[in-house]
C-alpha cells in the first residue's frame, strides 16, 4: 500500500494530467503569471528594504544628493511591484477560470461517457456506483469542488512557492543558510499540516453522504413546488422545518467532532514548530552573537523575508480545499469509470471484439428458458421463461402490476443480462451482439420516458440522432403520434422549449407528453429501428383514448415488430397476439378472440375492465373512465 505522501503526490500528478485538456497557451500563460505573482512580493521586499537602507544617507545628503535620487528610484520600484501584483491578480483569476472551464468540460464528457457506455443499467444501479455518480454530479454543480478547479488551483501554488523560494534565498544570502533552513522548515511543517487537514476533512465527509443527502432533502428539496403543494394540503411544512433544524444540528455536531479532531491538536503542534523556526531565524538577525548586527536595510529585508518564508504555512483559500474537494470528485468519477469498464470487459461487445453483426430483425425474437433475478433481490422475477415472437407481428404483454412485463423489456433491451437461458435474435444469441448497436434497433417508450427541457422538435428528434435536424421527418412522426396539431399551436411551434424553467417555454399535459414520447419512438423507426416497444405508453391517457390510440398505432406500424405492454387488458385486443403474464410466467397465449373463447384470466379481466370503463368490444363509443 503506498504511503500517504506517495498517494498525495500521485493525486496531484493525476490533477496535473487534466491540464492536457486545456489549451497550451492558457496553461503556459497561467504558469508565467503565477511566477510573476510570486516574484512580485520578493521584488517588493528587496526594493523596499534597500530604500530603508538609503534613508539615513538620503536624509544627510539632502534632496539633490545621489542617495536621495536612489531612494526615490527604489521607492518607485517598490510601488511598481505592488501595482504589478494588483494588476496580475485579476488577470490570473481569468486565466484560472479559463483553464478550469476547459478541463471541466472534459470531466463532463467523461461523466456522460461513463454513464452511457455501460452496456446495461445493472452496473449503474449498484448502490456504490450510484452514490459515486451522484457525488460526482453534486461536486460538479458546486463550482468550487471540480477536478478542473483543483487542477487550476494547483497552478496557483506556483506563485506561493516562488515567493517562498525567493524569500528563502534572500534569508540565506542576507543572513545565513541555517536561518533559511529554520524559517523554511517552520513554514513547511504548517503547510503540510494544512494540506493533510484539508485531505483528511474532504475524505471524512465522503463517508457522511447518506446524512448529507437527508439533510439536503430536509433543508432544501422540501422547498420544491411538488412538495410545497403536499406540505400545504397535508400540513407537514412545520414538521419538515423542525426536522431540518434538529437533524441539521445533529449533522453539525458530528462535523464539529471531525473538524476539532483534524484541526485543533495537529495545528497547535505545527504552529509551535513554525513559531520556533521563525524565532531561530529572527534571533540570528537580531543578535550579533549569532551572526547578526546587520544594517537597518538588511534587518528590514531579513525580517520581511523570514515572515514571507514562514507564510508558506498559511491556509491558501484559493487552493487547499479546492484541490482536496476536486480530487474527491475525480476519485468518484474514476470509481464510476472503473465499474463501467469492468462491466464492459465482461461483455463481448467491445469495438473490434467478437460481436456478431446487428441488422433489422427479419425472422424472430425468442426467449429461451430465461431466468432472471434483479441484482441484490431475493426472488427471481423470471424462471424458465420462453416466448417466440415472429418478426413483423405485434405482441401485447398484459398482466397485473409486478407480473414481470417491464423486466422482459429490459432484458430484451439488454439493460440486464439473463442469469440463465438466452434471448435469440434471428437465430443469434443476443449476448453475442454489440449491445449498443442492438439497442439502436429498438424504438422504445418506457413508463418513465424522458421529458427534455429542450424544443419540442428536439424532444422528438432524439428518436434518431441522424434525423434531429430533419423538420419534415420530425413533424411527420409527431403527426402519426397525434401530437402535431397542439405542438404547432405552441407560441413558437416546434421550436418551443418544453419546460417552464426557460423563458418562453411551456409545459404539456401528461397525455400530451406521452404523445411526444411516442412520436420520438416513431421517428426511431423511421431512422431504422426494427423493433417498437411501448411499455405502458398511454397510462396518462383515458382508457378510451388509450384503446383508440393503440388500435391506430398497431394499424400504423403494421409490419413492424411491435411489443405493447399494458396492465389494462381492455386496450390491446387488436394485437396479433396477446400473452398474459403472471408471476413471471405466461399463463395464457393467443389472439383476443381465442382468449375470449378460452374464458380464462384474459376474458375475465377484459370483461371487467371493458364493462367498468364502457369500452366497446370493437371500435368507438363508451365513456371515459379512470383506470382500475
Ligand atoms: N430494479 C429493480 N430491482 C429490484 N427489483 C425490481 C426492479 N425492478 C422491478 N423489480 C421487481 O421485479 C418484479 C417485476 O417488476 P416489473 O416492473 O417487471 O413488473 P410489471 O409487470 O412491469 O409491473 P407494472 O405493471 O407495475 O409496471 C416486481 O416485483 C418488482 O418489484
TrEMBL record:
Superkingdom of source: Bacteria
Segments crossing the lipid bilayer: 73-95, 164-190, 262-287
Domain annotation ABC transporter: ranges: 365-608
Pfam families (alphabetical): ABC_tran
Coiled coil: none
Annotated keywords: ATP-binding, Membrane, Nucleotide-binding, Transmembrane, Transmembrane helix
Gene3D superfamilies referenced in this protein's UniProt entry, alphabetically: P-loop containing nucleotide triphosphate hydrolases (3.40.50.300)
InterPro entries: AAA+_ATPase, ABC_transporter-like_ATP-bd, ABC_transporter-like_CS, P-loop_NTPase, Type_1_exporter
GO terms assigned for molecular function: ATP binding
Name of the featured protein: ABC transporter ATP-binding protein
Amino acid at each position: 500500500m503506498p504511503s500517504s505522501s506517495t498517494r498525495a503526490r500521485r493525486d496531484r500528478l493525476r490533477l496535473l494530467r487534466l491540464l492536457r485538456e486545456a489549451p497550451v497557451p492558457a496553461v503556459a500563460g497561467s504558469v508565467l503569471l503565477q511566477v510573476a505573482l510570486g516574484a512580485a512580493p520578493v521584488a517588493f521586499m528587496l526594493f523596499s528594504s534597500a530604500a530603508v537602507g538609503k534613508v539615513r544617507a538620503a536624509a544627510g545628503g539632502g534632496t539633490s544628493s545621489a542617495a536621495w535620487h536612489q531612494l526615490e528610484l527604489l521607492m518607485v520600484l517598490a510601488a511598481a511591484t505592488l501595482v504589478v501584483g494588483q494588476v496580475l491578480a485579476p488577470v490570473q483569476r481569468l486565466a484560472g477560470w479559463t483553464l478550469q472551464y476547459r478541463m471541466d468540460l472534459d470531466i463532463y464528457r467523461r461523466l456522460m461517457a461513463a454513464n452511457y457506455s455501460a452496456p446495461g443499467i445493472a452496473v449503474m444501479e449498484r448502490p456504490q456506483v450510484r452514490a459515486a455518480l451522484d457525488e460526482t454530479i453534486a461536486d460538479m454543480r458546486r463550482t468550487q469542488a471540480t477536478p478542473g478547479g483543483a487542477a487550476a488551483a494547483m497552478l496557483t501554488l506556483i506563485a506561493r512557492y516562488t515567493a517562498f523560494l525567493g524569500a528563502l534565498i534572500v534569508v540565506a544570502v542576507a543572513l545565513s543558510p541555517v536561518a533559511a533552513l529554520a524559517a523554511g522548515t517552520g513554514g513547511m511543517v504548517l503547510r503540510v499540516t494544512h494540506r493533510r487537514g484539508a485531505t483528511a476533512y474532504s475524505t471524512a465527509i465522503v463517508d457522511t453522504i447518506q446524512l448529507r443527502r437527508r439533510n439536503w432533502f430536509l433543508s432544501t428539496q422540501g422547498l420544491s413546488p411538488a412538495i410545497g403543494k403536499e406540505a400545504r394540503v397535508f400540513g407537514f411544512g412545520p414538521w419538515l422545518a423542525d426536522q431540518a433544524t434538529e437533524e441539521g444540528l445533529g449533522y453539525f455536531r458530528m462535523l464539529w467532532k471531525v473538524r476539532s479532531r483534524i484541526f485543533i491538536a495537529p495545528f497547535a503542534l505545527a504552529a509551535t514548530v513554525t513559531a520556533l523556526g521563525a524565532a531561530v531565524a529572527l534571533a540570528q538577525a537580531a543578535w550579533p552573537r549569532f551572526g547578526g548586527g546587520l544594517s537597518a536595510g538588511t534587518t528590514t529585508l531579513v525580517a520581511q523575508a523570514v515572515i514571507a518564508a514562514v507564510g508558506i504555512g498559511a491556509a491558501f483559500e484559493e487552493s487547499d480545499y479546492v484541490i482536496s474537494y476536486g480530487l474527491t470528485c475525480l476519485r468518484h468519477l474514476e470509481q464510476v469509470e472503473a465499474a463501467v469498464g469492468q462491466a464492459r470487459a465482461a461483455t463481448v461487445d467491445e469495438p473490434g471484439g467478437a460481436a456478431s453483426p446487428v441488422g433489422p430483425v427479419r425472422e424472430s425474437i425468442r426467449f429461451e428458458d430465461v431466468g432472471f433475478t434483479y441484482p441484490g433481490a431475493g426472488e427471481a422475477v423470471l424462471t424458465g421463461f420462453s416466448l417466440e415472437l415472429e418478426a413483423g407481428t405485434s405482441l401485447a404483454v398484459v398482466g397485473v402490476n409486478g407480473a414481470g412485463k417491464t423486466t422482459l423489456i429490459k432484458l430484451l433491451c439488454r439493460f440486464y443480462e439473463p442469469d440463465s437461458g438466452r434471448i435469440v435474435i434471428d437465430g443469434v444469441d443476443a449476448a453475442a451482439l454489440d449491445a449498443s448497436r442492438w439497442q439502436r434497433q429498438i424504438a422504445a417508450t418506457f413508463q418513465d420516458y424522458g421529458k427534455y427541457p429542450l424544443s419540442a422538435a428536439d424532444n422528438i428528434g432524439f428518436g434518431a440522432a441522424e434525423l434531429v435536424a430533419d423538420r419534415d421527418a420530425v413533424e411527420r412522426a409527431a403527426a402519426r403520434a397525434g401530437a402535431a396539431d397542439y405542438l404547432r399551436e405552441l407560441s413558437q411551434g416546434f421550436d418551443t422549449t418544453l419546460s417552464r424553467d426557460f423563458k418562453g417555454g411551456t409545459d404539456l399535459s401528461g397525455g400530451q407528453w406521452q404523445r411526444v414520447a411516442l412520436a420520438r419512438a416513431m421517428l426511431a423507426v423511421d431512422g431504422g429501428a426494427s423493433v417498437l416497444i411501448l411499455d405502458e405508453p398511454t397510462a396518462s391517457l383515458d382508457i378510451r383514448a388509450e384503446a383508440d390510440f393503440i388500435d391506430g398505432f398497431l394499424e400504423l406500424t403494421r409490419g413492424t415488430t411491435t411489443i405493447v405492454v399494458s396492465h389494462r387488458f381492455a386496450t390491446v385486443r387488436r394485437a396479433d397476439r396477446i400473452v398474459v403474464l403472471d408471476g413471471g410466467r405466461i399463463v395464457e397465449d393467443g389472439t383476443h378472440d381465442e382468449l375470449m373463447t378460452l374464458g380464462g384470466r384474459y376474458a375475465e379481466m377484459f370483461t371487467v375492465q371493458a364493462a367498468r370503463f364502457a369500452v366497446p368490444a370493437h371500435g368507438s363509443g363508451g365513456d371515459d373512465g379512470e383506470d382500475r
